[in-house]
Specification:
Length: 256
């Protein structure tokens, strides 16, 4: 799971095995080792598509606004973007055009610091059992908190397979200190700062390309946005943009 954008870093990875080195330093974003979601299980999940192809995940935060990662939308003109809601299937759903895109003013494309963006839709979303907004966090969660990550990221790194069915995986919050140590041990020259959150499952289970921008949800509240990881599911923590740390920015831009 994670965005189809492959940058110099990977968007998600487990936090537990700190001794395992990465095979390469490219960053990715997708879900590896997950499960197929039931219909309506993640009603806030959206697919962000570029020229009709799934590129990233995102979350519904109101009837007009979608929360995602900056790197998912920063380089694209509005005309090629489409947001699809209300489905577990990557080729189905209800599409919405994009009216505006906001990228954090201090977003750093190389380090992925402040990797947060907002999409204002051209039309109002009609909520139902399969389409609902997610509550946003205003505080941090302690290490060990159980969370869930959902998305249509790669399920196989070698074949770059995007699943038809929405995938999900359980993860636990990891301390910034442990996350930094794991990333350093993997040979990745990437900072982890206080405006980011790390989470982990196990080697072979984590985010991957095309999961980028998707929501990390703990107890029904969104705490993170998929940003980067060591591709894919190599035993290194996945890194998310903290929703709580950016709650004021979200409110200023969207009114949510």
């Amino acid at each position: 799971m994670l965005g189809t954008i492959i940058i110099t870093i990977f968007i998600l990875g487990p936090v537990g095995v700190l001794s395992q080195s990465a095979e390469n330093n490219s960053i990715s974003e997708r879900i590896i080792g997950g499960h197929s979601a039931a219909e309506g299980q993640f009603p806030y999940q959206v697919s962000i598509r570029v020229n009709g192809k799934h590129e990233c995940g995102g979350s519904i935060i109101s009837s007009f606004w979608i929360l995602t990662a900056a790197h998912c939308v920063a380089r694209y003109p509005l005309g090629v973007l489409l947001v699809v809601v209300g489905t577990n299937h990557v080729k189905l759903g209800t599409p919405y055009g994009v009216a505006q895109v906001f990228v954090h003013e201090q977003y750093e494309s190389q380090t992925k610091i402040n990797d947060i963006g907002l999409i204002k839709l051209a039309g109002r979303i009609n909520f139902n059992a399969k389409i609902k907004p997610i509550q946003l966090s205003t505080s941090l969660q302690p290490p060990g908190t159980s969370c869930v990550l959902s998305g249509w990221g790669f399920t196989n790194v070698q074949t770059q397979t995007i699943p038809d069915s929405l995938q999900y995986i359980g993860m636990r919050i990891v301390s910034v200190e442990r996350c930094r140590a794991a990333i350093s041990a993997a040979g990745l020259n990437m900072p982890v700062v206080d405006t980011q959150v790390c989470a982990f499952n196990a080697p072979g289970r984590g985010a991957c390309n095309a999961d980028s921008g998707g929501p990390l949800v703990c107890n029904g509240v969104q705490y993170g946005i998929v940003s980067w990881g060591n591709p894919c599911a190599t035993g290194v923590p996945d890194v998310f943009t903290s929703v709580a740390a950016n709650r004021k920015w979200i409110a200023i831009k969207s009114g949510v």
